[in-house]
């Protein structure tokens, strides 16, 4: 009898543990291949300094071909993006937003026109460019220890592998002796991709080394027409299913490899498809022929294209233009603060005229 009780207790304990385990499982499916939800190992400080960033501020599309969900905030706030945190004080955010409005409103008529917004977007994009150039100075110094103003592929390769945990002295010695480096498959793939990108950044006449300006375009392709085109080519290659170097709507909105296991995940993917369809038809496909060419995508991706800035300005105004006068008043920007800043303001209209 005691033995039976003991067995029964053990079985009950095992069932309880199994039940607890099932309860703690994550029942929400991850959206298929979305930039914001990719499982990535956190990069080390050294890797962040010398690796091309996954996200480029002020570009409409990510390096992997997904739409930049923060684009509106980036071109409206510029380097002030960090000032608008989700948990920051609403009253302070409202004050900052009012200050921004007064700067955008150049002619001081208490409203913002499309031209004023266009000019503001261009200026904020230039801020992102300047920030990238400053960061590049530190990154270039990290890979140019001898300070000769040039970095060869092998010098960069050594620094990259050192950032991944390899012994820098040993790697340098093996490269000099032209000995084989024993690399895991993932590291080898990343290295091959970087090498291709490296030689694309080497401006003619190619000398197989990069100066500081070329290294900037290696890290930030938006700073070079040639590298921007290379980035566009890489995106098209990943999305183009029939290999004609053009994108149809179905190719652009096709879900990447991945599965959706529940309704919430399906809803997320449905929203993602709708957003891409709208962007394809209303913005990227400029001649409305149902096909996006390399040139069209390159124009769309160019952050310094003033025509794009004007279209973006009109789109931003249309989102919040409640009185349909094709301009933005302060109350409208405050009411749609989440769209412009990513931060929601409470009691947005309270004392707004007095503060203004």
From TrEMBL:
Listed GO CC annotations: endoplasmic reticulum; Golgi lumen
Ranges for region Disordered: 33-53
Gene3D superfamilies tied to this protein: EF-hand (1.10.238.10)
Stretch forming the signal peptide: 1-29
Cellular location(s): Golgi apparatus lumen
Main localization category: Golgi
A GO biological-process term: calcium-ion regulated exocytosis
Keywords: Calcium, Glycoprotein, Golgi apparatus, Metal-binding, Repeat, Signal
InterPro entries: CAB45_EFh (IPR027240), EF-hand-dom_pair (IPR011992), EF_Hand_1_Ca_BS (IPR018247), EF_hand_dom (IPR002048)
Domain EF-hand: 92-127, 131-166, 232-262, 272-307
Biased composition annotated in UniProt, kind: Basic and acidic residues: 37-48
Keyword Cell inner membrane listed: no
GO molecular function, one term: calcium ion binding
Superkingdom assignment: Eukaryota
Annotated family: Belongs to the CREC family.
Protein name: 45 kDa calcium-binding protein
Species assigned in the record: Xiphophorus maculatus (Southern platyfish)
Species lineage: Eukaryota, Metazoa, Chordata, Craniata, Vertebrata
């Amino acid at each position: 009898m005691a033995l039976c009780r003991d067995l029964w207790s053990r079985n009950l304990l095992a069932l309880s543990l199994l039940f607890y385990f099932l309860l703690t499982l994550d029942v929400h499916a991850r959206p298929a291949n979305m930039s914001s939800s990719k499982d990535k190992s956190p990069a080390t400080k050294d890797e962040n300094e010398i690796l091309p960033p996954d996200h480029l501020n002020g570009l409409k599309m990510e390096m992997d071909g997904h739409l930049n969900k923060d684009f509106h905030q980036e071109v409206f706030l510029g380097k002030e993006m960090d000032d608008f945190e989700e948990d920051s004080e609403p009253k302070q955010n409202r004050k900052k937003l009012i200050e921004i409005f007064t700067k955008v409103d150049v002619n001081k008529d208490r409203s913002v026109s499309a031209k004023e917004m266009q000019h503001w977007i261009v200026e904020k994009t230039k801020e992102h460019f300047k920030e990238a150039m400053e960061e590049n100075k530190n990154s270039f110094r990290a890979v140019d220890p001898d300070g000769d103003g040039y970095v060869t592929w092998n010098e960069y390769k050594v620094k990259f592998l050192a950032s991944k945990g390899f012994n820098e002295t040993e790697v340098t010695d093996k490269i000099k002796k032209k000995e084989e480096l024993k690399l895991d498959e993932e590291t080898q793939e990343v290295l091959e991709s970087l090498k291709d990108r490296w030689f694309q950044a080497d401006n003619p006449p190619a000398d197989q080394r990069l100066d500081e300006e070329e290294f900037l375009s290696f890290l930030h392709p938006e700073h070079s027409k040639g590298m921007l085109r290379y980035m566009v080519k890489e995106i098209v290659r990943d999305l183009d299913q029939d290999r004609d170097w053009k994108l149809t709507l179905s190719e652009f909105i096709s879900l990447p490899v991945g599965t959706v296991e529940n309704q919430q995940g399906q809803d997320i993917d449905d929203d993602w498809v709708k957003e891409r369809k709208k962007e394809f038809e209303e913005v990227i496909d400029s001649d409305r022929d149902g096909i996006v060419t390399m040139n069209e995508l390159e124009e769309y991706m160019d952050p310094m294209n003033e025509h794009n800035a004007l279209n973006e300005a009109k789109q931003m105004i249309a989102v919040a233009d409640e009185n349909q006068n094709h301009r933005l008043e302060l109350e409208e920007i405050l009411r749609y603060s989440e769209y412009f800043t990513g931060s929601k303001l409470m009691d947005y209209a309270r004392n707004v005229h007095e503060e203004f």
